[in-house]
């Protein structure tokens, strides 16, 4: 049996600014650094280019129906979540490139989380509380912010993401911050440079 040492990385981006977004720049740096190694395979999901609708009752209800009993509409709705979960499970490392919008995550990213945080699929309820079913995965948060929030009470974003990942069993989570990006050109360039170095170090550990 041949065992591959290739690490599969899923990069999820969610900047509404597209290629002009600073979180996108962090993702591009990650991809470029990973490309220099022969043992890292990167897949990207752009949640703005392939935007998911807000989760609605019909889609939520489709998950509760046995596969063989679903209507054609329910099969189509359930397939959306199934495909995203299968994609996540097929990768070793999850990289979330996340801008800070009004102290929270983009609604596009929330729509993605709403479909991968799924009882019975990625976590289950037990007498001792929720138990994650996604095992052996790592996650990296690439956070781009106009101000400086890391380590303060105003950073409600990072704990939220870590809690959601922890729900499904991903507890090995590392964050790289590029902050103060709206505080002048010199500060922005320094912050992006330092974040780039931190990303390179993350790649070395993948």
UniProtKB/TrEMBL annotation:
One Gene Ontology MF term: oxidoreductase activity, acting on NAD(P)H, quinone or similar compound as acceptor
Catalytic reactions on record: 2 a quinone + NADH + H(+) = 2 a 1,4-benzosemiquinone + NAD(+); N,N-dimethyl-1,4-phenylenediamine + anthranilate + 2 NAD(+) = 2-(4-dimethylaminophenyl)diazenylbenzoate + 2 NADH + 2 H(+)
Cofactor note: Binds 1 FMN per subunit.
The Flavodoxin-like fold domain, residue ranges: 7-201
SUPFAM superfamilies from the UniProt entry: Flavoproteins (SSF52218)
Entry keywords, A to Z: Flavoprotein, FMN, NAD, Oxidoreductase
InterPro entries: Flavodoxin_fold, Flavoprotein-like_sf, FMN-dep_NADH:Q_OxRdtase_AzoR1, NADH:quinone_OxRdtase_FMN_depd
UniProt: FMN binding residues: 15
EC number(s) given by UniProt: 1.6.5.-, 1.7.1.17
KW Protein biosynthesis (keyword) present: no
Cofactors demanded by this protein: FMN
Keyword presence, Oxidoreductase: yes
Highest rank taxon of the organism: Bacteria
Pfam families reported in the protein's UniProt record: Flavodoxin_2
UniProt subunit comment: Homodimer.
Record family assignment: Belongs to the azoreductase type 1 family.
Function comment: Quinone reductase that provides resistance to thiol-specific stress caused by electrophilic quinones.
PANTHER family tied to this protein: FMN-DEPENDENT NADH-AZOREDUCTASE 1, FMN-DEPENDENT NADH:QUINONE OXIDOREDUCTASE
Protein name according to UniProt: FMN dependent NADH:quinone oxidoreductase
Gene: azoR
